[in-house]
Design goal:
The complex is a heterodimer. Chain A is of the alpha+beta class. Chain A has 3 domains: 184 residues, Aldehyde oxidase/xanthine dehydrogenase, molybdopterin binding domain (Aldehyde Oxidoreductase, domain 4, 2-Layer Sandwich), CATH 3.30.365; 341 residues, Aldehyde oxidase/xanthine dehydrogenase, molybdopterin binding domain (Aldehyde Oxidoreductase, domain 4); 103 residues, 2-Layer Sandwich (Aldehyde Oxidoreductase, domain 4). Chain A is 24% helix and 25% strand. In chain A, the strands form 6 sheets. Chain A has a 7-stranded mixed sheet with strand order 3-5-1-14-11-12-13, with helices on both faces. The radius of gyration of chain A is 26 Å and the shape is globular. Chain A starts with 14 loop residues before the first helix and ends with a helix. In chain B, 52% of the residues are buried. Chain B folds into 2 domains: 91 residues, Beta-grasp domain (Ubiquitin-like (UB roll), Roll); 95 residues, Orthogonal Bundle (DNA polymerase, domain 1). Chain B contains 5 helices and 8 strands; from the N terminus they run βββαβββββαααα. Chain B starts with a strand and ends with a helix. In chain B, the strands form 2 sheets. Chain B has a 6-stranded mixed sheet with strand order 1-3-2-6-4-5, with helices on both faces. At the A-B interface, helix 1, helix 3 and helix 13 of A face helix 1, helix 2, helix 3, helix 4 and helix 5 of B. Chain A: This is Xanthine dehydrogenase family protein molybdopterin-binding subunit. Chain A: InterPro entries: Ald_Oxase/Xan_DH_a/b, Ald_Oxase/Xan_DH_a/b_sf, Ald_Oxase/xanthine_DH-like, AldOxase/xan_DH_MoCoBD1, AldOxase/xan_DH_MoCoBD2, AldOxase/xan_DH_Mopterin-bd_sf. Chain A: Keywords: Molybdenum, Oxidoreductase. Chain B: It comes from Streptomyces spinosisporus.
Chain lengths: 693, 194
């Protein structure tokens, strides 16, 4: 028996390319005669383009063409309305692209875009979300296909008659994904064949969408996403850059690169929609919940319904006999929201876990113990048994490692120091995928699957899975990922990538092993291969409630002079099935917690009511955590042996790190200061304003 | 300059020839004579004219640090420098950090590049070349006695500043990493100091 490599801290296979600068990202493929595109964003929040004067732009040196809704190639109608770019004169929100300049150089394209004169017939706009917005309605489904509203028992009456009550509103502002690599695409046509390099979390989906838009057979479109500079949900589906690059390349007959300027991104790549929460918890004096009501109000755009499913975690977390969750969404003249790391869970668990802390304070109970006494037997909403749930173990292990027992708040000069805890959860998602595995005459094995490596290390972990399934040393396995002409696969999103791709790879390798077992003599020159398709298997309904769980502990120092909050310690313990690569998994957990730290303390965007755009549209104004903000982050995990998941026994790990971090930090700020803040982020101005010091 | 290359700073020839100046840059030890559009940044020169795509464009506004390279040994945001102003400068990009292997038969990563690999100090890799160039610049600044915001004000001036984790964090704060590899990056930088 070959010793197992699954779980080992194997180094990422593309690491050397990344540290030496030879890894190529989407805008870095430079076919001969390549030219550049630069978009022109709308400067009104709602209205109609009445004229586009391109004369001055066309006089700029190097400008080849200006695409507008009048002359751009006609696309088939997309399912995703955000991709119907330059098809009509409507402006659904500020920042919507109304023209595209194509020029010989970047400088020419930028100057050309600045010279385009667009006239509008503006209309009154409304971009301001309130909890009582008259346009808000309960949709059929929230993001992820969850029912928008659920109710069991009589939660209002149970709440009213409960011994201890918490009734609190929380606010999470719009947030931006801001991967370090801007959305970028390089497109080139060869007759009716389209080749694009694009920054995407899943190029199979991009291929399907482009084939539809340009009315091409799917095998006439090849989409490559070899290295992707982060996505965090914003590259989960094709965005306007890839459509515009393909249009511009078709129109000019030249290969075209479009890399979105950073300041254009918030309006066109999706954002985490703001969520306004009302959470009501009713409990017995011993802490047991009798009623849990989580109501969420959020916004979407006029062209696409996207409802951040922030009340969904409350259906799974705690044993409350009376439970109500509801989402309301108000269509406004805002950019279309979309996925950002742990959509739903990240803001929803901020609210729920803050409310649990408030309840613990109201009860005079330890917040770790409060969560433990509310541990459910089965999933509260569905009644299904959990395939595995080790939240209590995460809380206890974290408390021990964090020295939670000695957590009394203290003062050090102007600093107030406190600690907080919050639980984390993320559902197990898995999608059908296909893969092939081949045995080569030279003794190596080749695994092919259109997985995407957005920084998770998928090449590496898939090779580990394959090596174990084949029973061969890791060095003999090669992996090919990141091209749509490989066997089709699901996207790197919903923390589902490794489970989905790994399942298909495992299946293909198992079949190959069986073929090799019956094969006699030397391998044919082309080797032997086997294919797998997990449709019907990976997406089969499960009788189990399947989720990863975790616990966050935070220590903060609040400066009573400046109002600055600094995280001094963050510790997370996670239970997410088997961890398949200890090295890269740790990086993902730490990365998620770091983004959660940003959500807690620095990240926040504002819809400007007058102009209808995001005020914080670049990295100077939208503060993602920097080195100096981030303390050493401690991550541990509890290995779970769960046979109800997939052949590897793994749960997703890409998102759970961000879930709960902000609540743990907010709860620590309360512990330190005695002040309960209910709106993120906890910036110095806000902390000073609300402070009792 | 026998091994120098003369490159048209802008390809395609359809651009006007006004506002262009002959400029010489020495990049990773190799001289390049370029005729540069005055609007062209150093970042776009190394990427688009010289094909050195290791320097990354994250924001194009000096806000993220992904484009950090060394100019005459000092770290700079190459997206903020107009290349035409750098005539005669020595530029080092991440591609210029690797050395010949001990047997002369291939590239040997710089010790800091190796430390990034050893510590898994990156995920998507897009900020990584900037982080590495910035750290090399920061180490040189500390060695030259440049204080940072967190340096003890009582430290004697002009002497090398020892870099603890807080110093490293402070000095690298111009380089954003959205994947959240910061603690590992600090580990990697500590490795090359030790």
């Amino acid at each position: 028996m070959v010793s197992t490599v699954v779980g080992a801290p194997v180094e990422r296979r593309e690491g050397l390319e990344k540290v030496t600068g030879s890894a190529r990202y989407a805008a870095e493929h430079a076919p001969p005669r390549r030219v550049w595109a630069w978009p022109v964003p709308a400067t009104v929040a709602r209205g109609t383009v009445t004229a586009v004067d391109t004369a001055a732009a066309m006089e700029q040196p190097g400008v080849l063409t200006v695409l507008t809704h009048r002359n751009a190639p006609r696309l088939a109608e997309p399912d995703d309305a955000t991709l119907a770019v330059l098809q009509n004169p409507r402006v659904p929100h500020r920042g919507w692209f109304v023209a595209l300049v194509v020029a010989e150089t970047l400088e020419d394209a930028r100057a050309g875009a600045a010279a385009v004169q667009v006239s509008y017939e503006p209309e009154e706009h409304d971009v301001s979300l309130t909890m009582t917005h008259p346009g808000a309605y309960v949709p059929e489904e929230a993001n992820g296909g969850y029912p928008a509203a659920t109710e069991q028992g009589d939660p209002e009456r149970a709440f009213a008659s409960s011994a201890v009550q918490v009734d609190a509103d929380y606010r999470v502002p719009p947030l931006h994904n801001h991967p370090m690599e801007p959305h970028a695409s390089t497109a080139q046509w060869d007759g009716d064949r389209l080749l694009v390099h694009t920054s995407s979390q899943g190029s199979t989906a991009v291929q399907t969408v482009l084939a539809g838009l340009f009315r091409l057979p799917e095998d006439g479109v090849t989409v490559v996403a070899e290295h992707v500079g982060g996505g965090f949900g914003s590259k989960g589906t094709p965005r306007p850059d890839v459509v515009l690059a393909a249009m511009a390349a078709r129109q000019t007959g030249r290969p075209v690169t479009l890399a979105l300027p950073r300041r254009h991104m918030p309006a066109v790549v999706g954002h985490r929609a703001p969520t306004l929460h009302r959470v009501r918890l009713g409990a017995e004096p011993d802490g047991r919940l009798t009623s849990l009501i989580h109501e969420v109000t959020t916004h979407t755009s006029r062209i696409k319904e996207f409802t951040e499913q922030a009340a969904v975690p409350a259906r799974t977390m705690y044993a409350a006999a009376h439970l109500r969750t509801v989402h309301r969404v108000a269509p406004l003249d805002v950019p279309s929201p979309s996925w950002m790391r742990a959509p739903g869970e990240a803001p929803g668990m901020y609210a729920l876990e803050s409310a649990m802390d408030e309840l613990a304070c109201a009860l005079g109970m330890d917040p770790v113990e409060l969560r433990i006494v509310n541990e459910p037997e089965t999933e509260p909403h569905s009644g299904k048994p959990f395939s595995s749930r080790h939240l209590v173990e995460c809380l206890r292990e974290g408390a021990r490692r964090f020295d939670w027992a000695h957590r009394a708040p203290r003062t050090a000069g102007p600093l107030r120091i406190g600690t907080g805890v919050a639980a984390a959860m993320y559902p197990v998602l898995v999608q059908p995928s296909t893969a092939s595995a081949g045995a080569c005459p030279d003794g190596t094995f080749l695994v092919r699957i259109n997985a995407t490596d957005i920084g998770t290390g998928s090449r590496t972990v898939l090779a580990q899975i394959a090596a174990d399934a084949l029973g061969v040393p890791l060095e003999r396995v090669r992996t090919e990922v990141g091209r749509s002409d490989l066997p089709s696969a699901s996207l790197a999103g919903g923390s589902s990538g490794t489970a989905s791709w790994g399942w298909a790879v495992h299946e293909a390798c198992t079949r190959l092993t069986a073929r090799l077992a019956t094969h006699t003599g030397p391998l044919p020159p082309d080797g032997l291969d086997a294919h797998a398709d997990t449709a019907g298997q990976a997406d089969a309904d499960s009788p189990w409630a399947r989720h990863a769980f975790g616990a966050h502990f935070a220590e903060v120092a609040v400066d009573t002079v400046t109002g600055e909050v600094r995280a001094r310690r963050l510790l997370g313990v996670f239970a997410a099935g088997h961890i398949l690569n200890a090295r890269t998994a740790r990086s993902q957990f730490v990365g998620g917690m770091t983004m959660g730290l940003g959500m807690a303390l620095t990240e926040g965007s504002t819809m400007d009511a007058a102009f209808g755009d995001f005020t914080q549209s670049d990295l100077a104004s939208y503060h993602v955590p920097a080195h100096a903000d981030v303390p050493d982050i401690e991550v541990h995990w509890i290995d779970e042996d769960d046979p109800h998941l997939n052949p590897m026994g793994s749960k997703g790990i890409g998102e759970i790190g961000i879930v709960g971090t902000a609540a743990a930090i907010g709860n620590a700020v309360h512990h330190a200061t005695g002040t309960r803040y209910r709106e993120l982020p906890l910036t110095p101005d806000r902390v000073r304003r609300g402070a009792g010091f | 300059m026998g091994d120098s290359q003369h490159l048209q700073g802008e390809r395609g020839g359809a651009s006007a020839s006004r506002h262009r100046t002959d400029t010489t840059l020495r990049v990773n030890g190799k001289p390049h004579q370029l005729t540069l559009d005055h609007r062209r940044t150093l970042l776009d020169v190394v990427r688009e004219d010289l094909g050195l795509y290791g320097a990354k464009k994250g924001c194009d506004h000096g806000q993220c640090g992904a484009c950090t390279v060394l100019v005459d040994g000092r770290r700079v945001n190459s997206c903020l420098l107009l290349a035409v102003t750098l005539d005669g400068s020595e530029v080092t990009t991440v591609e210029g950090l690797t050395g010949e292997g001990p047997t002369g038969d291939g590239e040997q990563p710089h010790p800091l590049q190796q430390a990034f690999l050893d510590r898994d100090a990156f995920q998507c890799g897009y900020c990584t070349p900037g982080q590495i160039c910035s750290a090399i610049g920061a180490l040189a600044e500390a060695a030259a006695g440049h204080p940072s915001r967190v340096t003890d004000p009582r430290a004697p001036s002009g002497r090398a500043v020892p870099l603890d984790r807080d110093e490293i964090r402070e000095r690298l704060s111009g380089n954003l990493c959205r994947c959240g590899a910061y603690p590992r990056i600090v580990d990697a930088v500590e490795d090359v100091i030790a």
